[in-house]
Amino acid sequence: MFNVSPLERFAELVKEPDEGIDLGLGAALIAASEYEDLDVQREIRLLDDLASAIEPRLGDRSDTLRTLNDLSRFLFDDLGFQGNSDDYYNPQNSYLNDVLKRRLGIPITLALIYIEVGRRLGVPLLGIGMPGHFLVRHRDEQDLYVDTFSGGVLLSSEECAEGFRQRGLANSWRAEYLAPVRHKEFLGRMLRNLKYIYAEQGEDGKAIRTVNWLLALYPEAGEEVRDRGLLNYRQGHYQAARDDLNRYLDLGAGVQDATTVRQMLRRIDELLAG
């Protein structure tokens, strides 16, 4: 049997019906993009071990408030998982293996661990992809949200809205910001975080690699094709940039910036002509 790369495994995983996509496995495979020798199954076993360790402490799981408090106490008080507010844009905060080892993360990776531990215990949890933040909600509890970045504090929907306003977005709140995200979008948001971090830090090669993973998730995502073209241009990979930007125009996704992209393509043609 031929060896399959983490990216190929990821591409197959995300072809599953959304509810069948294993978030823990998806996150571990994303981590393997950075750590070539990562034992993906070991990372999955660590999630299993966390669930096994807390299981004897859980009482009646139909009592959602108690269950959420027990999970939060175990992960944040006992084990010390916490949000890395001091070094928020460190890429390690986005890789499952690093978060499990360092017990530091950003909202989405801490939420993923919380959800995956809960899933192993039969606790149905949902990811809530607020703009600028990420929360967890019990499937059967409509107005109770877990802020994993803040030590598992429980919030009402109004408290979520107030936190949103405090981040300077007072006139933009919408109730749909508290809608659950699908599994593909969960993984896509993790990858877009990494793309942004690497691009901002000038790590263009890693940003391009991350876009390749995003395109495994969303093959027709014109914005990702365009961004890879721009990153390739910045790297001096002019033929690759040309291919991506032409594909972007062919996908019909760039109505608003088509003129700018065509100007860049003319510049690339000049560079390739020498």
Name the helix and strand elements from N-terminus to C-terminus, one letter apiece: HHHHEHEHEEEEHHHHHH
- Give the name of the CATH architecture of the largest domain: Roll
Distance between the termini: 46 Å
> What Rg, in angstroms, do the CA atoms define?
20 Å
Low-pLDDT stretches: none
Q: What is the name of the CATH class of the largest domain?
A: Alpha Beta
Report the structural category: alpha+beta
Strand share of the residues? 5-15%
Shape category? globular
Report mean pLDDT, rounded to a whole number: 94
SSE inventory with pairings:
Elements: H1 6-13, H2 23-34, H3 40-54, H4 64-78, E1 82-83, H5 96-102, E2 104-105, H6 107-120, E3 125-128, E4 135-138, E5 145-147, E6 153-155, H7 157-166, H8 183-200, H9 204-217, H10 222-235, H11 238-250, H12 258-273
Helix pairs in contact: 1-2, 2-3, 2-8, 3-6, 8-9, 9-10, 10-11, 11-12
